[in-house]
Design brief:
By secondary structure, the chain is mostly helical. The chain has helices spanning 7-30, 47-53, 56-89, 96-108, 111-124, 131-155, 159-167, 172-201, 204-209, 217-225, 231-272. It has a domain at 58-227: MetI-like (MetI-like fold, Orthogonal Bundle).
């Protein structure tokens, strides 16, 4: 006889989710507050979103953050996918342990140490800090997360599909782009979304590697919160939460649609055979 969840499990689940998401919900609610006092409800209003559109500093920081996140996530996805392929497909080779350790080191490296080391690197290279240094820094620590996600996808990959394509005369490069990549594409998209989200959220590493004209949104919010939370900050955080939520939902739907299409093609192939 199957028993339902106990009251302890339900209570723990409710308290856990409340602890995680209730502060975000309160932030979203108070972004529509009429009053300038963020802890006093003065009625429903959207005026702070209109005020936000006139706040050039926050808008500039927002667009810098989006651009950094997009470019760093894209580059990190390419490099992380290549690293995952080497680790899974190349077997044992000289320097594999060193290469694996270098790829996954940012996973356990404290952000302060990583940010400081990158700062010293850019100073030693006499590289002016700005947009591109932040982008390179975010690519460095996001690449390892992509490699982990894609590697987990490649571990369960059926190589007989690739072997069948190569037996039919398909070159290795074409086999990768037409066979391998479409199959592991959900993992690649998941890695890209994870890298994008990590870049949006980063404060410590960006603080070390940024320069004039490249202030990210977390840095701008942190600098303003020290002087007090304003309704504009609630509004921009709500927009950011909505932006990430829409992206995650879109990626999930795309992954689900591709999985359904692949299963339909497999059933059609079996029926045709």
């Amino acid at each position: 006889m199957t028993r339902g969840p106990s009251w302890f499990n339900v209570t723990s689940l409710v308290l856990g989710f409340s602890f995680l998401y209730l502060p975000i919900l309160l932030l979203v609610v108070f972004s529509f507050n009429e009053s300038r006092l963020v802890t006093v409800w003065g009625g429903f209003s959207t005026k702070w979103y209109a005020e936000l559109l006139r706040n050039e500093q926050l808008l500039d920081a927002f667009w810098v953050t989006i651009r950094v996140a997009f470019f760093s996530a894209t580059v990190a996805t390419v490099l992380g996918t290549m690293a995952a392929l080497v680790l899974v497909r190349s077997g044992r080779f000289v320097g594999r342990s060193l290469f694996s350790g270098m790829v996954f080191a940012p996973l356990v490296m404290p952000e302060v140490i990583l940010g400081l080391s990158l700062l010293l690197l850019f100073v030693a290279m006499d590289q002016a800090r700005g947009f591109w240094t932040v982008m390179l820094a975010h690519t460095t620590f996001a690449m390892c997360y992509v490699a982990v996600v894609v590697q987990s996808r490649l571990v369960g990959f059926d190589k007989s599909i690739e072997e069948a394509a190569e037996d039919l005369g398909c070159p290795p490069v074409r086999t990768f782009f037409q066979i391998t990549l479409p199959i592991i594409f959900p993992g690649v998209i998941a890695g890209w979304m994870l890298a994008f989200t990590l870049s949006l959220d980063d404060l410590v590493i960006a603080s070390f590697t940024t320069g004039p004209g490249a202030t990210t949104l977390p840095m701008k919010i942190y600098s303003q919160v020290r002087l007090g939370v304003t309704p504009e900050i609630n509004a921009v955080c709500t927009i950011l939460v909505g932006f990430v939520t829409i992206g995650v939902i879109a990626a999930s739907l795309a992954t689900k649609r591709q999985q359904v299409k692949r299963e339909r093609d497999e059933r059609a192939a079996i029926a045709g055979g």
